[in-house]
Amino acid sequence: MASNRGPIKGEVVTRFAPSPTGFLHIGGARTALFNWLFSRHYGGKSLLRIEDTDRKRSTQEAIDAILDGLSWLGLEYDEEPFFQSQRADRHAEVAQQLLASGHAYRCYATPEELEEMRAQQRAAKQPMRYDGRWRDRDPSEAPEGASFAVRLKTPTEGETSIDDLVQGRVTVRNEEIDDYIILRADGTPTYMLAAVVDDHDMGCTHIIRGDDHLNNAFRQLPIYHAMNAIEGGWDDPTYAHIPLIHGNDGAKLSKRHGALGVDAYRDEMGILPEALFNYLLRLGWGHGDKEEFTREEAIELFSLDGVGKSPSRFDIKKLENFNGHYMREADDTRLAEIVASRLGAEANVDLLAKAMPVMKTRAKTIDELVDGSRFLFATRPLQMTEKAAKLLTDEGRQYLFAVSQRLKSENNWTIEALEASTKALAEDLELGFGKLAQPMRAALTGTTTSPGIFDVLVLLGRDEALARIDAQAVAPSRD
Description:
By secondary structure, this protein is mainly α. It has helices spanning 26-41, 60-72, 88-100, 111-123, 191-201, 214-231, 262-267, 273-281, 295-301, 316-329, 332-343, 349-359, 366-373, 386-391, 394-408, 415-428, 433-445, 453-460, 462-472, and strands at residues 2-3, 13-16, 45-50, 82-83, 104-107, 149-152, 159-164, 168-173, 181-183, 206-210, 238-242, 245-246, 312-313.
């Protein structure tokens, strides 16, 4: 039997189905993006399902983080989120239909019996599969009152093929799929059953997910086929299994590679949502040599034909480069407000907005913008970095005295006028301009890196700039 690929007909419905047991990690965010873009490209629906059936590990904090991260990336959904935990009765109802129709059966095997079975399989170096011991037995053979799980009766002959939109045709022998549990002994549904029932009830036409779920497709299809035989209308979805993301060294992605939650990229690293959106889009998908896409272009051009079969490699430096590009294009007031929120009460949004044109040319992250902006709101005496302090030698302080005297006579406090005056002073003193600029930067910012020194003078304003220079200047000795 085969799940046919074929042309896309009717409304496309995709879903993103995260488990709220932790943050929205980078791989999940890319899966969400690909689902969203695919449905938007075809004018379909994009749905969100929170798979919160693991009540011990699922938390409201994780749910909030997932919803917040998706919203920050601009992935809006066409309906309110579905919560899998609220649908347990529906899952159990389908399990009972499968049981009543003979597509599932009661398994009375005890945990001890199952462990003994697995031990024997390990010893014989056999695949670890349920051996079907209750598949054809009459339930009357079980001890009275014994608990049981419900197992799906999977096909034992032939093979199943899937025409995956990314992986191509994949075929598995049916004998490799064992009769797995769909309803536990306590009456709760398993993931395999719940996911299929929810995908069907939500009308999902395309299941786009990581290729670590490819084996699950072959386990889930028998439920579709059984329910289709029972009541009809349970058509196979179309599958697309996306290769996972690896680190830059080719190893499985981990925290050391940058496998953080979306909130960490925003809050700790200072990445803009449009930069992460574009980077995730290009992480395993391409359209010719084009690197940068607007949201509208991404929707127009996205197709699963552009998804590669090999794992993509996460490169934090490339993400930062993307972010630097988008920061340079970003509205100055927007950036100023983001930076001000991180600097706190000391920050002045108007001054930051004025500084952004020169500040953002040097930065790749919001964090760098924040650090680079601190000098604007520093109070005297400025704290000096070690490198800056080394520039304020006796000679450097005397140069600052000369700079102060020259700039105090400058009535036109503009970049052009200040540059002309300072460079003229350097010529008068027969010095290279750097001999003046380096101690000036240290005195004005407390650091050795900043925007252009004349930009700094103008941003600080005449009074504050001169006061900072005078705080470090020393008049030359008259000896």
